[in-house]
Amino acid sequence: MEEISLAIAAVTSHRLVVVPRFAPDAAYAAAVRAVHPDVDVVPTQAFRDPLARWEPSDHLLVIAPECYPVEGLPLRDLVGGAASDGSMLRNLLAFETSPAGTKEYVHAGEGGRVRRIQRYFEPVTWPFPAGVVASLVPVACLLTIPDLPWASLAALRTAMAARGVPSQDSPYHGRVVHLDDEAGALALAESRVEAMAAASQALGAARGEDAGSLVIGRGARVHPSARLLGRIALGEGAEVEAGALIIGPSLVGARARVERGAVVAQCLVTPDAVVPRDAAMRHRVVTTGAVTPAGTPGHDDRAEPASGEPPVARPVLQRRHVHSSAPAASAVDVRPSAYLRGRAVVEPVLAALALLFLLPVFAVVMPLIALTSPGPVFYGDLREGRGGRVFRCWKFRSMRTDANDMQRQLAAVQQMDGPQFKMAHDPRVTRVGRVLRRLNVDELPQLWNIVRGEMSFVGPRPSPFRENQICVPWRHARLSVRPGLTGLWQVCRHDRANGDFHQWIQYDLLYVRHVSLAVDLRVLVATFRTLGGRWPVPVERMLGTRTASPAAPAALPDTIASPAVNVAEFHTHDVAEVLPPSTEPSSVGGGSLRRMRVADARRRAV
């Protein structure tokens, strides 16, 4: 409540109104006013009475607990400019996330045969809202529509749309939790404890002190025999008695008490609540005023005193209402290293010097392109960089301006076995373009992308979204580093005649796993020595290993079991369940590719 009141005070000075979904008593109203004195507590049934006192030109800012942002309420953009438009509902809309960063829908027809498989990726193709964070509602609209559903902002949005009230949705891509269930409240408390502990450690480091992982409020008391493990926050006046054990992340509110011998593991203990003696709590929200089956007031109704072995309270709900925007784990565990951070600083300087050195080449190439074919000198296509961020990748234009339209007509002569289009004697390439491509001069403008920090000298080939969505583990791995002007695949590929998408996957994953200064220098030298990959270089030489070819992936069955496709309606699941991440590069690449081929064969059979 305190956090919400501070967020609202930043955008408006008007009085707050709390509208609980139950009939509030005097004790509830007093508890709310203890946090924020200037507030009205009104039951839902009586809410239209204060509503009638407001002017039709006013706006009502509504915040509900079913979709609460972990990083705090971003209300400025929602409220800004509201006075100029009193006829439209404005919503801050949050979106779901998948642990794998992707979802896959399987559409089956009659007889359970698969008709279509559609994969969605965050945030490029992601039409899955999680809920409404906040709504700005014109009072004029509310006065004309009786019996609005205040229980949910999503229901309010739907009801007003059904009555013809236009709405404007603004996306919110942060992490949200559902505070109406235990899992959501625990997730928010965990986030707050982590933030407080990190801030305390940063402050301690600035003072030359070791702040540890504990945050202890004024007047809090901890018995010397009590044990506190992990990141824990104790509110003002909280008390931890003898022999108690608290395991973090846990948040113990102001004036709360953990009694003798109690165990609290990853819990939220609300202000003034009591964890009884010898009770064991895990993944629970302990509140005040509840009554246990034993009739002991002051703690959650699922906590029981110990008899022999202390009972451990199990979580009632899994954390399915916690929508996180954290990046999904990839098949290759990649963490920003000191080398990658240093490379990001040095490369833009080197690229700028290279551009100055190559200005004579630009001065020759640019007129040749302009004089021999109509269209711009440079061609910029949208590609995905590190973290999936989209940028415009620049090249010297080597094709006709209608090349994309021609590609659809030439699809039948595709010579690659993956998403990339390639064919011998491509009619879309201009005469000057053939020379530029043969010498790899068309790639030189990508030095500007390196100056801008969008690319590196060495890395996976920059690809558009339509190519990166084919293999999920490959996508996660290759987008964990910046794309490169050259790379391991360009200098080591040796199966061009048969279409080498499988090698593209394998070499990208090998590079991401072994990225280092030595590997980058070897790839750069090999790029010059082979004139941009005219002939292959052994990958073992590039990586400085005896062998870089891991064991072959486990064989897949020739046929798919019928339960996998015997579905009669839409089903959704995470792609991670279909393509489990592997720690072996060829297992990810080859295995995923074989899965795609099986899926293609299945679709053809249908």
UniProtKB/TrEMBL annotation:
Transmembrane regions: 349-371
Compositional bias of kind Basic and acidic residues: 597-606
SUPFAM superfamilies the record matches: Trimeric LpxA-like enzymes
GO MF term list: phosphotransferase activity, for other substituted phosphate groups
InterPro entries linked to this entry: Bact_transf, Trimer_LpxA-like_sf
Keyword Transport: no
Residues annotated as signal peptide: none
Domain Bacterial sugar transferase: 345-530
Keywords per UniProt: Membrane, Transferase, Transmembrane, Transmembrane helix
Keyword rRNA-binding applies: no
Region (Disordered) residue spans: 290-309, 579-606
Domain of life according to the entry: Bacteria
Similarity section: Belongs to the bacterial sugar transferase family.
Name of the protein described by the UniProt record: Sugar transferase
UniProt source species: Gemmatirosa kalamazoonensis
Native organism taxonomy: Bacteria, Pseudomonadati, Gemmatimonadota, Gemmatimonadia, Gemmatimonadales
